[in-house]
Amino acid sequence: MTRETPPGPGWDDRLSEQVGRKATRKLKARSGRRHVAWLGLGVFGLIGWSIAVPVILGVVIGRRMDAWVEGRASWKLVMPFAGLVLGCINAWYWTTREARDA
Hints:
The protein is an all-alpha fold. The protein has a domain of 67 residues. Helix content is 79%, strand content 0%. The longest helix is centred in the middle third of the chain and has 33 residues.
C-alpha cells in the first residue's frame, strides 16, 4: 500500500476553508430554529408552483395544438401530462439542490 501525494499546493488549505464554511453554515442554520416553519412553507410553495406552472402551460399549449393540428391525438391530455413530468423533474432538482447545499 503506497501513500499518494496531495493533488497540488494549497489543497489542504482549500479543503479546510470549504469544511469551515459548511460547518459555519450548519451552525447558523441550527441556531435559527424559529424560522424553520416559514422556510418550510416557502419551499412547499416553490415546489407547488414549479409543478403547477408547467401543467397550466401544458393545458394552454395543448388547447392551441388541438386547434392547429388535426388528428386522433388529444393534445389537451398529452401536454398537461408532459408539463406534470417536467414540473416533477424541476421540483426534484430544487429539493436535491437544497438538500445538498444544507
